[in-house]
Design brief:
Helix content is about 45%, strand content about 20%. The protein is an alpha/beta fold and about 200 residues long. It has one domain: P-loop containing nucleotide triphosphate hydrolases (Rossmann fold, 3-Layer(aba) Sandwich). The strands form two sheets. A five-stranded parallel beta sheet has the order 2-7-1-8-9, sandwiched between helices. Strands 4-3-6-5 form a four-stranded mixed beta sheet. The longest helix is centred in the C-terminal third of the chain and has 16 residues. Bound molecules: guanosine-5'-monophosphate. Guanosine-5'-monophosphate binds next to strand 5, strand 6 and helix 4.
């Protein structure tokens, strides 16, 4: 991490069951200069999820009040619950020089791309629809109907991948993690990310 430099933003989206959360956890574990933005949501915590770690779990009224205060960089209704990225939370991290991952859905990704065109957006794909269906069926808790709905939604989300800067296929976890790291490294070399350095160099020439 470079203390005098603002961090970069990386949007990561994928259809449910693609392994996005596992990949992001690996990236965070292996790169101390990366952080993930902890979103706000109105959905109920799942077993093992902690407030402030996995999400800020808030009631609907509080979420709507935050929307009215323009506290979110983006927000969306996903599967009937609100999810949003706090502007203050992201700024706090980038100002400390951390690169920040926004693990958000395709609607949120579109909003962030419009507001922050310099952010890099990455879509993670499953190797095939059969494999995705198999992974979703592996989650024994979900009924056939829920799985069918998820697959239809996955198809719609995958169609949105054309709007992203990068596409990574999660066939092998190690390869996909290495691909993501290459994208993050390239993002740090974008001229928008290097503007402060260029200005400083010229001022001292
Ligand atoms: P889950 O409830 O399974 O944790 O997440 C459901 C979906 O919501 C996932 O696609 C996840 O990436 C997305 N999501 C999580 N946080 C945010 C957020 O802050 N904004 C948006 N737009 N989507 C989010």
């Amino acid at each position: 991490m470079q203390n005098n430099k603002k961090g970069n933003i990386f949007i990561i989206s994928a259809a449910s069951g693609t392994g996005k959360t596992t990949l992001v956890s690996r990236l965070l574990k292996n790169n101390s200069d990366l952080r993930v933005s902890v979103s706000h949501t109105t959905r109920q915590p799942r077993e093992g999820e902690q407030h402030g770690v996995h999400y800020h779990f808030v009631p609907k009224e509080e979420f709507e009040s935050l929307i009215a205060q323009k506290a979110f960089l983006e927000h969306a209704d996903v599967f009937g619950n609100y999810y949003g990225t706090s502007i203050a939370g992201v700024n706090r991290l980038t100002e400390q020089g951390f690169d920040v991952i926004l693990e958000i859905d395709v609607q949120g990704a579109e909003q962030v791309r419009n507001i922050l065109p310099e952010a890099s957006s990455i879509f993670i794909l499953p190797p095939s629809f059969e494999i995705l269906a198999g992974r979703l069926k592996g989650r024994a808790t979900d009924s056939e109907e829920v799985i069918a709905t998820r697959l239809a939604k996955a198809r719609h989300e995958i169609e949105q991948s054309v709007h992203f800067d990068y596409v990574v296929v999660n066939d092998d976890l190690n390869t996909a993690e290495a691909d993501l790291l290459h994208i993050i490294k390239a993002g740090r070399l974008k001229k928008s990310a290097q503007q402060g350095f260029i200005t400083n160099l010229l001022e001292n020439s």
